[in-house]
């Protein structure tokens, strides 16, 4: 028997709330907000949710609709430095803070946070 994935443990609604909470902040953020097209907030939210769901063991909606993730390639048109990576992490951390320990255990949060940090720093493409 296989171990339940983080997606199995947390469910679709967790990822929906996490990503929505993140984008609620991004919309008004002075540093990374301008990187997002004003006419595609819902699309951006969907794509991040699909990616996270797929990465953590849920349906492969991202790959079915967008192909392989290729995160660095997809983000290369945007100038992402340390400040942008840190801001992305700050906003994501605040979104994670909406969940108490009954919804997200410290171990689960640690798994998510480790992944978020690796991805954010991997996106850096400028000094």
Description:
It is a single chain. By secondary structure, the chain is mostly helical. It has a single domain, classed as Orthogonal Bundle (Globin-like). It is 61% helix and 0% strand. It is built from 7 helices and no strands. The chain has helices at residues 6-10, 12-26, 41-55, 61-66, 71-75, 82-96, 106-122. α6 (82-96) packs antiparallel against α7. The longest helix has 17 residues, at 106-122. It is globular. The chain starts with 5 loop residues before the first helix and ends in a 5-residue tail after the last helix. The mean pLDDT is 91.
Topology, please?
Blueprint: H1 6-10, H2 12-26, H3 41-55, H4 61-66, H5 71-75, H6 82-96, H7 106-122
Helix pairs in contact: 2-3, 2-6, 6-7
Query: Can you tell me the CATH architecture?
Result: Orthogonal Bundle
Report, as a whole number of angstroms, the end-to-end distance: 47 Å
Main beta sheet: strand number and arrangement? none
Shape field: globular
Let me know the CATH homologous superfamily: Globins
Mean pLDDT: 91
Poorly predicted regions: none
Q: What share of residues are in beta strands?
A: under 5%
Q: Assembly state here?
A: single chain
CATH topology: Globin-like
Percent of residues in helices comes to: 55-70%
Helix vs. strand class: mainly alpha
Could you give a short description of this structure?
InterPro entries: GlbO/GLB3-like, Globin-like_sf, Globin/Proto, Hemoglobin_trunc. This protein is mainly α.
């Amino acid at each position: 028997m296989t171990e339940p994935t983080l997606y199995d443990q947390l469910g679709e609604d967790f990822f929906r709330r996490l990503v929505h909470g993140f984008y609620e902040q991004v919309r008004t953020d002075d540093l990374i907000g301008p990187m997002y097209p004003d006419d595609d907030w819902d699309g951006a939210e969907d794509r991040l949710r699909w990616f996270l769901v797929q990465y953590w063991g849920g349906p492969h909606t991202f790959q079915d609709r967008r192909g392989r993730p290729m995160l660095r390639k997809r983000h290369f048109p945007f100038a992402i430095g340390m400040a942008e990576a840190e801001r992305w992490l700050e906003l994501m951390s605040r979104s994670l803070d909406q969940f108490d320990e009954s919804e997200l255990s410290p171990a689960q949060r640690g798994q998510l946070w480790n992944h978020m940090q690796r991805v954010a720093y991997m996106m850096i493409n400028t000094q």
